């Protein structure tokens, strides 16, 4: 898992699983707790995700909400969306809505 930090946006690349949750968690909470802004997690290039990573996202989303911030997931691919639905955690994530085309 590679994480590219671009201000309040974290761009994830690769497999988001139990091996990478510690690193991703640290990056998310550093931004949520240290900056007075919202965090966007760009998951365009995430190839797979497991239950541990989804739980991390659900807990971090709740933490953000409780502290007056937002953690938004951007561009989750089909594998990520499918796993979130199967794990019944899709409702716990704030997924960015794509702009409607004219």
Automatic annotation (TrEMBL):
<dbReference type="Pfam" id="PF13466">
    <property type="entry name" value="STAS_2"/>
</dbReference>
<protein>
    <submittedName>
        <fullName>STAS domain-containing protein</fullName>
    </submittedName>
</protein>
<dbReference type="InterPro" id="IPR002645">
    <property type="entry name" value="STAS_dom"/>
</dbReference>
<feature type="domain" description="STAS">
    <location>
        <begin position="10"/>
        <end position="102"/>
    </location>
</feature>
<dbReference type="InterPro" id="IPR036513">
    <property type="entry name" value="STAS_dom_sf"/>
</dbReference>
<dbReference type="InterPro" id="IPR058548">
    <property type="entry name" value="MlaB-like_STAS"/>
</dbReference>
